Amino acid sequence: MKPMSRKCEQFTDSVIRRMTRISLQYNAINLAQGFPDFDPPKELLDRLAEVSYQGPHQYPITMGAPNFRQALARKAGRFMGLSLDPETNMVITIGSTEAMVDTIFALTNPGDKIAMFSPYFENYRAQAIMADCEPVFIPLVPPTFDFDPNVIEDAFKTGVKAILICNPSNPSGKVFTYDELKTIADLCIKYDVYAIMDEVYEHIVYAPHKHTYMSTLPGMWERTVSCSSLSKTYSITGWRLGYAIAAQPLMDRIKQFHDFNAVGAASPLMEAAVVGLDMPDSYYEEFGAHYAHMKKIFTDGLTSLGIPFTDPQGAYFVLADIGPFMKPGQKDVDFCVEMTQKVGVACVPGSSFFNEDINNIVRVHFAKKDETLYEALNRLSDLKSKMA
Ligand code: GLN
């Protein structure tokens, strides 16, 4: 038979999602794929129960239910400080994953280059390849995850079409400062590069750090697509509700791809989630405080266990150094599978995120109930002897 797509050979399955399957196999605590084990807000669950009988249950309006888009325009507009038109500035997608894919397809042509920071969320590389684009990596250098603007400029000089930025950043936990974003924005304007932002962790930022929306920087609204979702903010990763926000000329194109990629996001879930988008500011304050609480439990625990890690400024991941616990010559992927089996805690090997040849880092997330975190920390004690 004729050969299938050559693109398939350039990426594997998602290692993050593979680790979830391995975690289930060994009944481990899943600190690999980032999702909470606590309930979404009761308001959403109550509304979902009502919607189950009231509907809608049929196809949604393709670009997103009108009341959902109106609520999103109010909520996102409030936080971004922008006046957003629900008709022209947004599309509701199947998770921010689809928003990113639609955006990449809308902005690029085969052979274009897409710049992205390394470490990167593993979807990005595969998504660029699916669009026949070439990923160009710009290092974020641990432990502070700083970048060299000259490296970005050198990349842009080679004719990059778009830069893809996760802010707050998965997996590094970096929150880009206004000045850092301004440096990147000025280069985007100078070299006519689009900014594709993944901002799903926009409400998980630890003081004194603050989230800045790239779209709000001078000259950037016209060339930025802000992709985000309800997954993290309302603890509903399984509802797969995401969106893209952009100026109309870009959004018109993104909508074309959404139309044929997705038909629409789940109509009953959009209806039930409107109540989330209408939550007052106090919800986001309590949500942020809860994440600060989980981060403290987990990072205090890792410190007392003597497991080195980088302290995140935002999002809900730490990058831990497993070098001291590895057997000579062991691969990080094998370490993670063995740890899931022997220790009962799943995490993601760092090689899934770094373009550089790095083998001693794992990503661990802490979006879990206190008791789950304490149990995971308990299992991680004496790691050296358990992994011997
Ligand atoms: N963003 C989450 C993570 O990095 C979920 C990934 C996914 O599977 N969509 O773990």
From TrEMBL:
EC numbers, comma separated: 2.6.1.-
GO cellular component: cytoplasm
Tree of life domain: Bacteria
SUPFAM superfamilies for this protein: PLP-dependent transferases
InterPro entries reported in the protein's UniProt record: Aminotransferase_I/II_large, Kynurenine-oxoglutarate_AT, NHTrfase_class1_PyrdxlP-BS, PyrdxlP-dep_Trfase, PyrdxlP-dep_Trfase_major, PyrdxlP-dep_Trfase_small
GO molecular function: kynurenine-oxoglutarate transaminase activity; pyridoxal phosphate binding
Cofactor section: pyridoxal 5'-phosphate
Keywords of the record: Aminotransferase, Pyridoxal phosphate, Transferase
Domain Aminotransferase class I/classII large: 28-380
Pfam families found in the cross-reference section: Aminotran_1_2
PANTHER family reported in the protein's UniProt record: FI04487P (PTHR43807)
Family classification: Belongs to the class-I pyridoxal-phosphate-dependent aminotransferase family.
UniProt name for this protein: Aminotransferase
